[in-house]
């Protein structure tokens, strides 16, 4: 890859990992539409590491509190945290991540072979864009994270597994279900971001295992630059997204998805 391609793809990964517009679609499309060389597994691992550090650093207080409380729930550490909502939330996030892991293990090869086309991306971009818009328009409640309960958390986790289909958007579909369940926009986004931590770890770990068993050469300079740029763009994205969310809502992203989906269909059929 050229330096320009590295910069564009790393920034795209950082921005789209947390915006409700699908990171996988934006990484697949340049190779399909512009004829760019596939970025390879090493680069995919690097940008996932960058986005993981970004979300963990941004939510470091919440993550730290959840880890301490979770340790208390299994009989270690300070017992005063064991009954807190942080411990419960940690369990919800861990258990809600299981569907993604299972579907990923069972269907990863099928998705890789059959669902990475521009047509699939166009369809999922439009379908789940409409759903996000519907959820945002209908969202009138302003509930806390605790209000969704374990069943609600698992429902969001099940929806997250659907996002393995390129174009769906992991953050988009989890925020959509969060809004439908009555969460405020801010809480729907925060739960989605916290749920992304095990999701990115699982995805990055899977790609790392594939890289270890492959014969692909590793360019450490490319990996380092990709990881750094993904980290910076992801951190900035989370920060400004949460600031602007209450003012703008989801509609700018819905409109973007609809324009992108229609544009892709036009390109395919032209």
TrEMBL record:
HAMAP family listed in its UniProt record: Undec_diphosphatase
Extra remark: Bacitracin is thought to be involved in the inhibition of peptidoglycan synthesis by sequestering undecaprenyl diphosphate, thereby reducing the pool of lipid carrier available.
Reactions mediated catalytically: di-trans,octa-cis-undecaprenyl diphosphate + H2O = di-trans,octa-cis-undecaprenyl phosphate + phosphate + H(+)
Family from the record: Belongs to the UppP family.
Main location: membrane
Transmembrane residue ranges: 89-111, 117-136, 188-208, 220-243, 249-269
Organism: Litorilituus lipolyticus
Keywords associated with the record: Antibiotic resistance, Cell membrane, Cell shape, Cell wall biogenesis/degradation, Hydrolase, Membrane, Peptidoglycan synthesis, Transmembrane, Transmembrane helix
GO cellular component term, pick one: plasma membrane
Gene: uppP
Matches recorded under PANTHER family: UNDECAPRENYL-DIPHOSPHATASE (PTHR30622)
Entry function: Catalyzes the dephosphorylation of undecaprenyl diphosphate (UPP). Confers resistance to bacitracin.
NCBIfam families xref list: PRK00281.2-4
Single GO term (MF): undecaprenyl-diphosphatase activity
Pfam families per the UniProt record, alphabetical: BacA
Its membrane topology: Multi-pass membrane protein
InterPro entries the record matches: UppP
Subcellular location: Cell membrane
Enzyme Commission number: 3.6.1.27
Protein's recorded name: Undecaprenyl-diphosphatase
Gene Ontology annotations of biological process type: cell wall organization; peptidoglycan biosynthetic process; regulation of cell shape; response to antibiotic
């Amino acid at each position: 890859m050229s330096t320009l391609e590295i910069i564009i793809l790393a920034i795209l990964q950082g921005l789209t990992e947390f915006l409700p517009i699908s990171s996988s679609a934006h990484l697949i499309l340049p190779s399909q539409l512009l004829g760019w060389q596939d970025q390879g597994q090493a680069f995919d691992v690097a940008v996932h590491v960058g986005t993981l550090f970004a979300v963990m650093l941004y939510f470091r207080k919440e993550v730290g509190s959840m880890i301490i409380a979770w340790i208390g729930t299994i009989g270690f550490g300070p017992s005063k945290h064991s009954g807190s909502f942080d411990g419960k939330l940690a369990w919800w996030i861990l258990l809600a991540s299981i569907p993604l892991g299972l579907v990923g293990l069972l269907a990863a090869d099928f998705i890789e072979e059959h669902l990475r086309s521009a047509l699939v991306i166009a369809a999922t971009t439009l379908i789940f864009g409409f759903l996000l818009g519907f959820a945002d328009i209908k969202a009138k409640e302003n509930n806390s994270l605790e209000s969704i309960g374990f069943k609600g958390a698992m429902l969001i986790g099940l929806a997250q597994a659907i996002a393995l289909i390129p174009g769906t958007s992991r953050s988009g579909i989890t925020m959509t279900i969060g809004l439908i369940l009555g969460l405020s926009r801010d809480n729907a986004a925060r739960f989605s971001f916290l749920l992304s931590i095990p999701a990115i770890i699982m995805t990055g770990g899977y790609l790392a295992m594939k890289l270890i068993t492959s014969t692909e050469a590793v360019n450490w300079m490319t990996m380092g630059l990709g990881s750094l740029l993904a980290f910076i763009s992801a951190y900035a994205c989370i920060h400004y997204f949460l600031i602007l969310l209450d003012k703008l809502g989801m509609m700018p992203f819905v409109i973007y998805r609809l324009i992108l989906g229609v544009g892709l269909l036009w390109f395919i059929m032209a």
